[in-house]
């Protein structure tokens, strides 16, 4: 089965099928359907132009935050997160960087001003986290000890453009 038009997400879909939802990164799991409009319409926006450039693909936190791809003006697809308590932020410049963010094995904290990834010293690694890190290595991707530097790079590159684009929509309708 082809999960999405993004090869890395298709490979991740296969990995998740083997290891399980929320098994390799805290709170993370690919949705059964890539790009389902219903993931972002309730509580966010019903405007067709909003959905034309977004494709939801995963749960970001156990509380219900959502990851989506956003088609930027230059055609690239940074990853954005819709926070379950509000806030929408860019978290990765592309899917490959996003996979590295997942290797941190912590959930994002999202508000309207910023996003950051956290985990406490008491948090146990996800059950299949070691397998995920090995899987990343097969794709020539290095795991990260901290996710926030990758987020900062993505914010620097796409944050203002995304914010400007988002500003044209009435959110929460």
Structure description:
- This protein has 173 residues and is of the alpha+beta class.
- It is 32% helix and 17% strand.
- The chain has helices spanning 7-19, 48-52, 95-102, 129-138, 148-166, and strands at 29-30, 54-59, 66-70, 79-82, 88-92, 107-110, 115-118.
- The strands form two sheets. The protein has a five-stranded antiparallel sheet.
- The longest helix has 19 residues, at 148-166.
- The termini are far apart.
- The mean pLDDT is 94.
Summarize the structure.
32% of the residues lie in helices and 17% in strands.
What features would you highlight for this structure?
about 30% helix, five-stranded antiparallel β-sheet, 7 strands, globular, about 170 residues, single chain, alpha+beta
Largest sheet: 5 strands, antiparallel
Instruction: List unreliable stretches of 5+ residues.
Output: none
Q: How widely separated are the two ends?
A: 34 Å
How much of the residues is beta strand, in percent? 15-25%
What is the radius of gyration computed over CA atoms, rounded to a whole number of angstroms? 15 Å
Helical fraction equals 25-40%
Task: Compute the average pLDDT.
Answer: 94
- H and E string: HEHEEEEHEEHH
Major sheet: order of its strands? 1-2-3-4-5
Oligomer: single chain
Topology of helices and strands:
Blueprint: H1 7-19, E1 29-30, H2 48-52, E2 54-59, E3 66-70, E4 79-82, E5 88-92, H3 95-102, E6 107-110, E7 115-118, H4 129-138, H5 148-166
Antiparallel strand pairs: 1-2, 2-3, 3-4, 4-5, 6-7
């Amino acid at each position: 089965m082809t999960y999405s038009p993004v090869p890395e997400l298709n490979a991740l879909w296969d990995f998740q099928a083997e290891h399980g939802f929320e098994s390799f990164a805290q709170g993370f799991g690919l949705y059964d359907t890539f790009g389902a409009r219903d993931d972002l319409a309730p509580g966010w926006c019903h405007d067709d132009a909003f959905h034309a450039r977004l494709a939801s693909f995963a749960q970001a936190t156990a509380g219900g935050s959502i990851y989506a791809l956003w088609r930027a003006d230059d055609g690239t697809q940074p990853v954005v997160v819709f926070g379950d308590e509000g806030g929408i932020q860019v978290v990765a410049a592309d899917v490959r960087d996003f996979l590295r963010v997942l290797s941190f094995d912590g959930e994002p904290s999202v508000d309207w001003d910023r996003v950051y990834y956290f985990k406490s010293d008491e948090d146990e690694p996800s059950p299949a986290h070691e397998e995920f890190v090995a899987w990343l290595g097969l794709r020539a991707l290095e795991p990260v000890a901290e996710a926030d530097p990758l987020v900062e790079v993505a914010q620097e590159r796409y944050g203002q453009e995304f914010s400007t684009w988002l500003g044209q929509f009435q959110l929460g309708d």
